Amino acid sequence: MPGKNPEMVDKIRRELNELTSSIGKMMELFRQIKQPIQESSEKVPSTTMQLEKVTQQTEKATHKVLDIVELLTNRNSEIIEICQKIESTIESGLGKNAEIGKLLDQIKNNANANLGDTMVIMEALQFQDITSQQIDHAVSQLEDVEGKLKTLLVSTGMAKETEIVQNGRKNRAFDPNAKYDAVHQNQQREVDDLISSIVKTD
Amino acid sequence: MPNLKILAVDDSPTMRRIIVNTLKRAGFEDVSEASDGKDALAKLKTDKFDFIITDWNMPEMDGLTFVNSVRSDPELQSLPILMVTTRSVKEDIMQAIKAGVNNYIVKPFTPETIAEKINQVLASA
Description:
The complex is a heterodimer of chains A (202) and B (125). With 202 residues, chain A is mainly α. Chain A has helices at residues 6-93, 98-124, 127-155, 185-201. A five-stranded parallel sheet of chain B has the order 2-1-3-4-5, sandwiched between helices. In chain B, strand 3 (51-54), helix 3 and strand 4 form a beta-alpha-beta unit.
């Protein structure tokens, strides 16, 4: 070969050998990491399914509690109505009776207290909507990771696009900052103050 | 209590049930439900309502888009809207007010808060 420089050829050969060896090592590394990446991406759908089950089960349980709360509300409202009817029946027949009136008032007060308590239960049950939004947020992030892992498998040649199972993503609507604050009155006060300031500015 | 016809819009069946029960306890008996903005707009086309209570984060059509649609419809634009959402970030609240909500409640709310806000909105209308 004209102008052939044996030293240079030797150097290029050595570098090509090193490059081949490096590529070989990289391929081996890819082969080693392919399985864990594939496994990780395959675990996401079952994890999201488990999380969705949590949402479904808490929703079911919440509705059971709501069924009972509604029954209690109706029963206590009926008790108050019955007391009022008894009061007016006695008054129209026997005239006012202080002792009976006092007892009926006690029953009505208790029934009203029960009604108040059912509202407190209802207020607490709002946790279900808030935790389901938190779970939706977690699921959405897991689905993002799954997508990235699959992209990595294809872009590095570790898997063919046709080998990748694409799971359809649900349309999820959630507030990523949703939180259940047991003492939530302060939060509402802050919102009220902000709205007042906006209205004043306008 | 005024005999208001209220439309409660929320994608969570639990929240819809809680809102309906809370409103009934406060004396508002006539409450209908919609599962998102799209469903609500369809109901507003076929039925007449006096008041809207809407969530923000919903599939199909979110609460903010729904509020914008109501405010841009000449037949619906004067309807009072109360937003009930978990979103408590200042920027979100300002965005909702700019879109045209009359008042804003952060979840979880107390039964007193929802009745108080409805009455405030009605008083200022």
